[in-house]
Amino acid sequence: MVLSAGFMFIGLGPGSILLSSVLCGLLLALVALGFFAVAPDRLLRGVAVWRAEILAGLWGLLGVLALLGASFRVEGELGWFPVFGADGPSLPMLAILACVGALAGRGRACVACVLACMGVLALSPLVFGLFTGTALVLLAGRGKRGLCLPFAVLPACIPADSILSVPLLGVMVVLVGWAVSVQRGPLAVLPACIGLFLLGRLLAEVGELPLLPQVVLLLCGGAVACAGLAQAMRQQQALSLVAGLAAGWYGMLVFALVLALSSPLGGADTFRTTVTLGMGAPVVALLGVLWLARRWELESGAGLHTPLARCLMGVVLAQCSVLPPCGGFLVLWSALAGAGYSVEASQPAMALLVVGLVVFFVALGVVFSAGLLRAALVFLPHRGGGAGQVRAMVLPLWLCAVLGSIMAFFPGLWLFVADHLVVGPPLPPVTWQDVTTVHFIGHSARLTPVLVLLGVALVVLAVGLLVRLLGFMPFDRSARQVEAWRQGAPVCDVAAAEGGAEEDVLPLWSAWHGFFFAPAVVTALRGPGTGGALFRRAVFFWRYARRSLFVAVGWCEAQGMVLILLLMGVGLLAGLFVGK
Fold this sequence. Notes:
Elements: E1 2-4, E2 7-9, H1 17-38, H2 41-44, H3 51-71, E3 76-77, E4 85-86, H4 90-104, H5 108-121, H6 125-140, H7 144-148, H8 165-182, H9 189-206, H10 211-234, H11 238-261, H12 271-278, H13 281-298, H14 307-320, H15 327-344, H16 348-379, H17 395-409, H18 411-417, H19 432-435, E5 438-439, E6 446-447, H20 449-470, H21 494-498, H22 508-516, H23 519-526, H24 531-558, H25 560-578
Antiparallel strand pairs: 1-2, 3-4, 5-6
Helix pairs in contact: 1-3, 1-5, 3-4, 4-5, 4-9, 4-13, 5-6, 8-9, 8-10, 8-11, 9-11, 10-11, 10-16, 11-12, 11-13, 11-16, 12-15, 13-14, 13-17, 14-16, 14-17, 15-16, 17-18
């Protein structure tokens, strides 16, 4: 028994009472979930009215049991039923699947989640393939997806050191990415969890891979991420847009998982933290966005009409994005720190390759945030569309926002619980200081999101005080309206000139305009053939550039204080990173 700053760890054997209690509780909860998901109303009678609440309660119980077992590092199997068991990655993944099932609903969706959970707890690869393949079939339905998606679990049915293992893993990554991109609602996360669980298991069993298999898996993950983000940037429907975001995030996690488990880089173990953080706050927040998109689609684009719902939507979208100190920002920071350690321990050519891969990963994160901005614009209600709307229950949005914020601002809790989500060396005993930080084993890099949040709040407060004391608003628009043909031109007050007042600005614009647009000059400059159209386009672009220049100069003159503060901040940051 080890006691460290309030956290207690107990060494438990396979035959312990806690192991039996957790596994039996998980299996009983899954059986009850399967029954209430498919039982007809006439069989349940009066209980059928409370079906949704019962399902939500059972999923909550399943998640609590999984978190309890992961916290106490429960591992082993039941001696009297050696089909299901628990080990390092299964219980944290089960907690994530419980969140998916709680938002998925009833019917086929709930049964698919139950089968995926049973596959995660299965000890045999064949049993895992049976349960997860059936879950993918239920998600795919009929057609070519129902025929192709079960082949995604084929890597679990062959030896990990087989020559076909890496090609089948590449096919699995692509098929699962396809399954994620076509789902509607929170179920989009379910195939992603199955694919990541299987990929992590097999890569941990194989170990380091040669260069060509690594390239194949990295290309598959990058292709899935690019395809998903392209779908998110092109689609106009909310469900397809958010499903593309889920596919993009799945591809990014595959990218980081391959670097963590199959790469021979010196600091590759730091990418384990990137994957673990990526499966925490961003995934929970993404579940909230997926649930919101499905509800928005069912309500025929009614949008969010209450201030509380808009605030919750902003929280879940921010936790997915790369804005500091949100969940996506922690993932990118961890990837950059891991790349720094990998570059230090690698040869120059390999270091340059690592830099290129991480730059690509960060670019994917930036495009992902742009897709979230598109989703936010889609979910906003149309003008005047919120009148007379009934306030609906947003409890799932509350849960996703609160859980995502806890995981983002106190990442040490999730890192402690999901320590074995990706196979690697165990974390040392957690102290209270480690709860609020992101850190690596054997490295000195640390990030405290609460302090970053405090710094951002202080900056916002300082800007507010400046606005209040100095009496100006940053990025304020000019209230003066002029004719379209005079936008960007020098100001000439004709009324004051007629009254005999002295003019500071000469009316050169009228003379210039009259000279160049006189009939003789225009005829001379146009030339034969298509020169007239080209000339008109050139004049149009010249006017646009000149008007933009005048607007930029005027804004810089009006916002001089803001520009000075920004330049001072850039200078301070440059001094921190460059100064000796």
